[in-house]
Amino acid sequence: MGVSIINQVLVFSEDEELIIDKAVNWLKDNNPQDYTLIKERLHLLRNLGIAVFNYPSIKKTGFLRGILVDQNELSKTLLAFSPASHLLRTPSKVVALRSFLVAKYHAFSLLSELTKKNTGLYNQVNNITFSVVFTLMAENVYFSCLDDPGFSSNTKEKLAEDLIALWDSGTDPRSIHHLMALSSLWSARDSAPPSFGTMDGNTELLRISIDMGKETEWEDFLKEESTNDKTRWALEEFLFGLSYEEILQVRGRLNRYGIFAVSHDEVRSYLDSKPVYSVVNDHDPRAIYDFFIERKDACTLRKRVSAPGPLHTLEEIYLKYRIILESS
Fold first, then answer.
1. Which of 61, 97, 230, 254 is the 20 to 30 Å CA partner of 223?
2. What CA–CA distance (Å, rounded) separates 118 from 81?
């Protein structure tokens, strides 16, 4: 089966089309009712995709005309699209693309649920839902990079072009290099839930590093960033699933009462209020995105009030490291 092209609009990649074809045919043979349901849902998604991708590139809109001549202004202009409060200032193509990605996530999440009895198909479909989540995360990382004074103007120019390409195509052009790194990082975390213990994070970090396997960039990243407090704080939030402030609260209680270790079940009782971050479980890609955005929002708040703690999420810091490495 070929790629889905209607009016010269590419809605799904060729690999996605092959997976859809196999999954739909399997459902047709094994559950006609589910087959009818997913056919209708995918039909609606295709129509939405056609509408979204028929929007002209934002390069051709009034938002960027004249700005593309001066690449130094391009980064600032794209950053103006990042705050939620600027929704009505954001190009229609960008808003529509985000809506399409959310709809795509829901459609493939449904398809993965319907194919659970076929492990091979289920895993392939589930990988697509994860790729959608990481694409949404990638947009946030691009904004973070464009706002980082540590990146050269040439690197920012390339990242700005990649961000525009993401908005135009619905896929991250750098995902080939970095998507698997994020996926590996999250898979490793999922297989090594926090044990808390002495709250030093060494056990969790060791498990994740082992599970990362051949990701040599991860080892180099840890060596280079080991003395950076903000990276260490972001890593601890990622490892424990607690905010920087909650980690200080738990550690303070351990020290105050001479307690040497805390169990997984006990740690929540050490906190006086509802946990800041959502619990990531059951291999739910939405929970991964929720946890990322909640930490990112907390970082934004700390910047605004000049509070101590991490100012970027671990994913942002790690992907920035890889992008700098790639650009050097």
1. 254
2. 41
**Beta carbons of 45 and 52 less than 8 angstroms apart:** no
Q: Is the pLDDT of residue 267 over 80?
A: no
Secondary element (H or E) of residue 6: strand 5-6
pLDDT at residue 223 greater than cutoff 60: yes
Neighbours of 156 (CB within 10 A): 22
Q: How far is Cα 54 from Cα 47, in angstroms, rounded to an integer? A: 11
Helix (H, G, I), strand (E, B) or coil at 22: helix
Q: Strand, coil or helix: what is 262?
A: strand
Biggest alpha carbon distance in the chain?
Answer: 69
Residue 304: count other Cβ atoms within 10 Å of its Cβ: 8
Other Cβ atoms closer than 10 A to 244: 22
pLDDT in tens, 27-82: 999 999 999 999 999 999 999 999 999 988 887 776 676 565 555 677 778 888 88
> What 3-state DSSP class applies to 261?
coil
3-class SS of residue 172? coil
What are the pLDDT digits (tens) for 271-282?
777 778 887 765
Contact 46/7 with Cβ under 8 angstroms? no
Long-range contacts of 8-17 (CB under 8 A, 24+ apart): 9/49, 9/50, 9/53, 9/54, 10/53, 10/169, 11/45, 11/46, 11/49, 11/50, 11/53, 12/46, 12/49, 13/171, 16/128
Amino acid at 132: V
Q: Tell me which amino acid residue 6 is.
A: I
Whether 287 has a pLDDT exceeding 80, the answer reads yes
How many angstroms separate the CA atoms of 106 and 100, rounded?
Answer: 10
Q: Is pLDDT of 87 > 50?
A: yes
Coil/strand/helix, residue 10: strand
Residue showing tokens 């708040």: 301
CB 189 within 8 A of CB 196: no
Instruction: Pick the most confident of 6-10, 38-42, 182-186, 201-205.
Output: 38-42
